[in-house]
Amino acid sequence: EIRWAEGAGRVVARRRRVLGALTLMEAPLRDPDPAELGRALLDGIRAAGLDALPWSKETAQLRERLAFLGVHDPERWPDASEEALLASLDAWLLPFLSGLKRLEDLKRVDLAQALLTWVGWDRQASLDRLAPTHVEVPSGSSVRIDYSNPEAPALAVRLQEVFGLTETPRIAGGRVPLTMKLLSPAQRPVQMTQDLASFWRDAYFEVRKDMRGRYPKHYWPEDPLEAEATRRTKPR
Fold first, then answer.
1. Distance between CA 130 and CA 154 in Å, rounded?
2. pLDDT tens, residue by residue, 166-197
3. Measured between alpha carbons, how far is 176 from 221 in angstroms, rounded to an integer?
4. Apex CA 181: angle with CA 125 and CA 69, to 5°?
5. Are 55 and 111 in contact (CB under 8 A)?
6. Which of 104, 143, 146, 160 sits most deeply, having the most CB atoms within 10 A of its CB?
């Protein structure tokens, strides 16, 4: 008998001899099949949910990037939503669980390798191009993309760092615009848009009027398209 024991928080492997409902003998099972241990551990993961896995910031973003591609190009990319990954643990995670018995053993699993192996080498070649981890903005900063909403990934960046950027950055081969979360010097949102050109044309001057009053030491040029983007209070 190899099964997940919820009360013990581990996979139990034992040999039992029974006669009907009567247990005649019970002892630990020596050298249980590592693959069977992995299958039993899946039951524990299903009960605990995907959060039981050791997601780092990077592997969580990888999962979200794959979910994004699954939404926007479902013919080529598998469904990597949380529900789909939980339902397909046998396909992508089981090969990496051999011999593991406890949820804490999962820290030894390379989740990035498990996900990338699952999507296949042919798709991996285009992953960084279609769903990059970062976007470089005019100030020179490399800003991480937030894929937590696969329908509308976002880029949170200080307004002064995108002066001169005339069009909204796009991903997925140019098909999906990023939601620009433009931030004040205090890192608070001042505007959200998927149409940066329209923001510069229609809304920037009202934002500028408000921000100049709140942050007078910072750079608020009259012409944001000709101005120098900066990570500093003002350009050098």
1. 15
2. 999 999 999 999 999 999 999 999 999 999 99
3. 29
4. 25
5. yes
6. 160
The residue ranges of DSSP E strands in the chain, in sequence order, are: 2-5, 10-19, 22-28, 134-136, 142-144, 154-158, 170-171, 176-177, 179-183, 189-193
Inter-helix orientation angle 111-119/121-130, to 10° = 110
pTM greater than 0.85: yes
Give dist(CA 132, CA 125) in Å, integer. 12
Token match 């990954």: residue? 85
| Distance (Å) of CA 14 to CA 44, 60, 79, 153 | 17, 36, 37, 48
Question: Within 10 A of 111 (CB to CB), how many other CB atoms are there?
Answer: 20
d(CA 66, CA 143): 19
Report d(CA 222, CA 204) in Å as an integer: 9
Cβ atoms 196, 178 nearer than 8 A: no
Task: Kindly tell me if the per-residue pLDDT of 29 is higher than 90.
Answer: no
pLDDT tens digits for range 45-82? 999 999 999 999 999 999 999 999 999 999 999 999 99
Q: Rounded to whole angstroms, what are the CA distances from 51 to 62, 82, 83, 212?
A: 15, 10, 12, 43
The whole-angstrom separation of Cα 209 and Cα 198 is: 17
- Give yes or no for a contact between 111 and 53, defined as CB atoms under 8 angstroms apart: yes
Give the other-Cβ count within 10 Å of 180's Cβ.
23
